[in-house]
Task: structure prediction
Amino acid sequence: MSKNNTAVSSLRQKILILYSGGSALDSKIVAWSLFDATEKEKMITGDSDVPPYESVFDAMKDGWRVIQISPIQSIHPGTEYSTGYLKFEHVLEKIASTDG
Amino acid sequence: MVNKKYLLTSKQMASFVNKGFLRFDKIIPKKLCDEAFRELKRNPDHKWWLTNGKPFSEIWTDSVIGKVFRHPKVEGIIQSLVGPNPRYDHHFPHRIEPGKLEPQNWHADSIIDTRTKHFDIQLFFFPQDTPREMGGTLILPGSHFRRVQESEISRYHNIVGQLPIVCKAGTLFVTHHNIWHCAQPNRSRKLRFMFKLRLNPTVRQINLWNTDDLSDPEIENVLMKSHPWTGVEERIEQVLRIKLWRFLTDNQHFDSRYWLTRIENEPTTIFEYQQSGVYENKGKLN
Result:
């Protein structure tokens, strides 16, 4: 393996999932999760009461890259007044090194 | 028959409809808590799988656990929510060892439950002081209307408004069957127990509590209080609460902020209005 490949292999994805209260990227965060493949950070249920960012847009300004946002769903007849999973899910990533 | 003084009030019931739970601090005497803790330690399994579906009156007729759930105040709570002769569903003594740092993931119990009116209750009994370092159970107030499949919500780590149950010995939380919850790590050096019991109603859950305060105007405020995590869906949640309150009080005309009256308005009396000249009569029909 070349030196360059060794450097690349130490890079890992950090996935931050932010759930906002509305479909706009600047609406308030209501829930969040972090999955860090560098294993430097570990988030578990109930370990924080305050979202890491006010909004998805704030996270973007801090260098997080948005890789998925929830589409705005059509309302299916018969389900107009039912609720389920958190509606507006945004998946963001940062690439970080396992070194240092 | 439960003494009326032990039944819940309408305001408490409205709070249950809003949050999906009620909290009763130190409702079980300490001596009984200590007895229950010793019993749970000695016999943690408690044959929880053997008796599903029996009348609750036939369960634990001669045990300390029976004394806990037949305490007059607890009987009043149970009767107010699921009626006088509930059916035993199951129970489970949750034993969290000291130093167990892995939490549970968020989940709702059982499987997808499509009922919109009737509900089961789950009683979470904490027999010992449970500070935050011992974990407690984490619950999400207002999550009971959400239709989810058990632990499919395990992707979520933290939700604004989540409530860790931190309490003194003898505290009881009584929840709607569908509330989101998860056990928290036990960072202390003490063994922790949380004993959960699920009961089913056997009667229609209508006006089962002390309804003396049913017309208290404060009830509407209790029902409509927002939760910080519902975002733009808060109004839908409010509609669901109004619908459940209509059922529980057997009052199909109950509304708040005109939400349901507006969307149910499909006039059939235009012709009658026109013919009767009711417009000149300030809208009053005979």
About this structure: Strands of chain A lie at 11-20, 29-36, 65-69, 88-97.
